[in-house]
Write a structure and sequence with these properties.
CATH superfamily of the largest domain: TolB, C-terminal domain
Order of helices and strands: EHHEEEEEEEEEEEEEEEEEEEEEEEEEE
Strand order of the largest sheet: 1-2-27-26-25
Distance between the termini: 29 Å
Helix content: under 10%
CATH class of the largest domain: Mainly Beta
CATH topology of the largest domain: Neuraminidase
Number of helices: 2
């Protein structure tokens, strides 16, 4: 495989974005972007096993397992999931690994046709075995989440509480995000065995928050453990939200701080009944998708910042947590790789690295971003 290396001296490549990107006197890190896998079809998400094996989902129906997150890493296995219905935005999407040795558990969200013929987004659990083989164990959420060609959500993360967090979209039905009996348009929280954890706001339900349109990224802020979700807006206001227990984020009544869909609501304040976003795009939208926080000291003044991939703008946005409001501190790789779908974090050589997936329809790639001070 021919590997493409892009070493970016950021102050030279992005002078406008980085002029005010770091605290006074703090030099931004130098970034290196390396294409580590190519020839993929709509890769959605990346996750890592404790031993470094890299798992990549492809929306048409596959999970690929590689020996690691380096350039030229060998492919160990390809698992084609059964009964996947990949139409529009639906298919095999989010993935996370519950780090247990010697048999880590793999959680995958995929759009499938049930045995009863219904189209559902299902959360499934696999065991990652020798040789990179994935062994199906069980469906954790099977019939509760409607699938559609649009707005499927399906970000999967393991939280610092060791619970499984899952985002769901409204599946194109405006009635679902506010309905208490629906798992659509929600952020869900469950135990790794599929049971409902203590501490969820409702009784016997996985719902942690409601009022979401299409959240495709979940990330946990280092230190505080606060949950952040990145959400697609309609024609206005993509959002970055801090997710709180029992929070209502307004959709379909609100798009960010604006009333939406002909409803008359006060969406302007972060007060009951709706939570205002920490950041909103205004118009036009960016198609914010994946999300990850950096943790390693190799990121210098960008440590613990939030990185968000965009599809429409084909770039990576860095959000700085240096006081309200949350702001975009840098815009990176503008058009360098095409549309960016996912962004994940992995410990890497004394620090950590980000891993991006592209969404260009053909010859898609996984890109590793490393930083040094």
């Amino acid at each position: 495989m021919r590997t493409r290396h892009l070493t970016l001296a950021l102050a030279a490549c992005l002078p406008v974005a980085l002029t005010a990107a770091s605290p006074a006197g703090a030099e931004p890190p130098r970034l290196n972007a390396t294409v580590i896998q190519r020839g993929l079809v709509n890769p959605w998400d990346v996750a890592f096993a404790p031993d470094g094996r890299m798992l990549v989902t492809e929306r048409p129906g596959r999970i690929r397992v590689y020996t690691g997150g380096r350039a030229g890493a060998a492919q160990l296995s390809v698992r084609t999931l059964k009964r996947v219905r990949a139409e529009g935005e639906a298919g095999v999407m989010g993935i996370a690994v519950l780090s247990r040795r010697p048999d880590p558990k793999v959680l995958v969200c995929a759009s499938r046709t049930t045995r009863q013929g219904r189209w559902r987004n299902q959360l499934m659990r696999y065991r990652l075995g020798d040789g990179g083989r994935l062994h199906f164990e069980r469906v954790l959420i099977g019939d509760r989440i409607r699938a559609n060609t649009i707005h499927d959500g399906c970000a999967v993360q393991i939280g610092p509480d060791r619970k499984v967090w899952l985002s769901t979209g409204d599946a194109g039905d405006l009635s679902l995000p506010q309905r208490g009996d629906s798992y659509n348009g929600k952020i869900l929280r469950i135990n790794p065995d599929g049971s409902i954890p203590a501490g969820n706001p409702g009784t016997g339900t996985a719902v942690w928050s409601r009022g979401h349109r299409n959240p495709q990224g979940i990330a946990f802020r280092p230190g505080s453990g606060d949950v952040y979700a990145v959400e697609h807006g309609p024609d206005v206001n993509d959002e970055v939200n801090r997710i709180v227990r029992g929070g209502n984020y307004g959709w379909p009544y609100c798009a960010g701080t604006r009333p939406a869909n002909g409803f008359s609501r006060d969406c302007s304040r972060d007060s009951s009944p709706y939570r205002a976003p920490r950041w909103q795009s205004g118009a036009p939208t960016l198609a914010t998708s994946g999300a990850a926080f950096t943790r390693g000291s190799n990121w210098g003044p960008w440590r613990n910042d939030l990185f968000v991939s965009t599809l429409k703008e084909s770039d990576l946005r860095r959000f700085a947590f240096d006081g309200p409001p949350l702001r975009i501190g840098s815009t990176l790789y503008n058009g360098s790789f095409g549309r960016l779908r996912g962004v994940s974090r992995r410990s890497w050589k004394g620090g950590d690295a980000l891993f991006l997936t592209t969404s260009n329809g053909s010859n898609d790639r996984v890109v590793r971003i490393t930083a040094r001070r």
